[in-house]
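Quick log. Single chain, no ligands specified.
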Amino acid sequence: MMPEMSGAEFFLLAVESKPSLEDRIIFMTGGSFTDSSNAFVGAHLERILYKPFDLEALSAVLARMPSLL
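-> predicted structure:
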């Protein structure tokens, strides 16, 4: 968990500040889920890593992400 904001809040601020970041952010689950965080996770399933994760799970998420080049 981040002390100042949620992952969803970070994502929205980052994309608002620099839209090109939208396809470059991967999320790791934190632990507690609210209705709003569940909705956010559901909308971004392709970029979610569930803790604990292994190299195979990380590789799978990275393979789904657009090229960073």
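Residues 7-64 form one domain.
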